[in-house]
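Hallway conversation turned thread

IA: we were arguing at lunch whether anyone had actually written out Glutamate--tRNA ligase end to end. Turns out nobody had. So, for the record, here is the sequence (466 residues) and right after it the C-alpha cells. Reply here if something looks off.
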Amino acid sequence: MSATPVVTRFAPSPTGYLHIGGARTALFNWLYARGRGGKFLLRIEDTDRERSTPEATDAILRGLTWLGLDWDGEAVSQFARRDRHAEVAQEMLARRHAYKCFSTQEEIEAAREAARAEGRSTLFQSPWRDADPATHPDAPFVIRLRAPREGETVIEDAVQGTVRFRNDQLDDMVCLRSDGTPTYMLAVVVDDHDMGVTHVIRGDDHLNNAARQTLVYQAMGWDVPVFAHIPLIHGPDGKKLSKRHGALGVEEYQAMGYPAAGMRNYLARLGWSHGDAEFFTDAQAQEWFDLGGIGRAPARLDFKKLENLCGQHIAVADDAALLHEIEGYLAARGDEPLTGDQRDGLLRGMYSLKERAKTFPELLEKAHFVLTSRPLSYEPKAEAALDPVSQGILRELTPQLQSASWDRQALEEAVAKVAEGHGVGLGKLAGPLRAALAGRTVTPSVFDMMLVLGREETIARLRDAT
C-alpha cells in the first residue's frame, strides 16, 4: 500500500502584509510538499471580520507570488466555511464531546475573581458541563469542548520533540460562539482535516494551540497531523523581530532589490540547515529539506548573509529571467518602466553587470552607461578626467576604433597602441575613456562598455566628450 501523500498548508490572517516570518513558514511548507511530490495549499484565515481586509489578502498573494511559492488549487477562505465549522460543533455536541454552556461573561468573570481570591486556578470550569439538558434555559449559549480533566495531552512534535500538557491546565474551550460563529481553534482543525493536511508546519507560538486542537481531532475521531513548530525569527540583536530591525514585509524586500531566488535560499537557511551548504538551488532545497534539519533555537536575521547569497544568485541567473525580475523591482518601487532600447541594452550587457552585484540597485548602478542616453551629463570627477590632454588622446583613438574589428581583442589592441604612442599605460587612458562612455569614473570595464554600446554609439560618445 502506498504512503499517504504529503499535504501542507500556509494559513495567514489577512490583517496586514506578508511578514518575513510568515514567508519563511510558507517556504518550509512549500519545500516539504514539493520535495515529496505532495500538495501545498493556501488558506486565508479571515474569520476576524473587523481586521481582515481584501487589500491584505492581495498583499499576501503578491508576496507569495514574488517569492515564487506556487500553491495548489484555489486559496480557501476560512470565513466562507463557517457553516461547515458549525456543523462539526453540532456533531461534537451529539457525540457528547461538547456541551452547551449558558454562563454569561459576568458569571465567568465572577467565578475567576473568586478563584483568584481563594488562590485557585482561574481556569473556568463551567457549571453546565454535566447539567441535565432538561434544565437548560431558553437563553443564548456557547458550545464548549468537553476536555479531559485528568491525564496528559502529548504532542510528538517533529521539531520540539515530545511536549506534554497536563489536562487539568487545559480549559473547555469555546468552539461555537453564542451568535453561531466558530472560534479560530475549531475552524483550524476542521479546515486542516477537510483539506487533508498531513503536516502542520507553523511558528512555535502555536505550540500551546496544538494541545487544544488535538483534543478536537480526538473528539471527532480524526487522524492528528504531524506537528512541526518552528522557532520564530529574531533580529540581529537576538530580540523578537520588530520594525526597529528594518523591513518586515516581504514586498519591502522586493522593493529593496533582492532577487527572489536569493530570498528563498536565505529564508531556507534561517533556522534550517543541510550540512555546511549555504548556497543552493530550489531543486537542491526541495530534495534536501526535512523537518529534522530545523533547529529549536530562534534564528537571527543577518542582512550581510542575505546580500551575499543574493549576489551569488544574481551571478548565476538566466539573463532574461533577471531582466524580468528587474522590471518587477522597478514596478514595486513605482519607478518608470524601461524603454525598449534600455531593455535591449541591459540584456546585451548583463554578462558584465551581474558579477559582484548583490542587489538590483547595485546592478542598475553599474548599468548606468547603457541606460542613459546622449548627451551624457558628466559627474565632476568624470569632467576632471576629460582634461585637454586626455581629450586629445581620445580624439586620436576615435578613427582607430572606427576601423577596428568590434571584438574585445581588437579593441584592446587599438587602445593599447594609442596609449603606447603617448607613453602612457592602459590604466591612464581607462579613466578618460570611462568618463567619455558613461559620464562617470566608476563603471564596468571600458571594453565591456564598448562591446555593449556598439561601434556607432561608442564613437558618438567619444566625439561628444572631445
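OS: looked through it. The chain has a mean pLDDT of 95.
IA: good, adding that to the notes. The chain has four domains: 7-77+233-305, 80-230, 317-371, 380-465.
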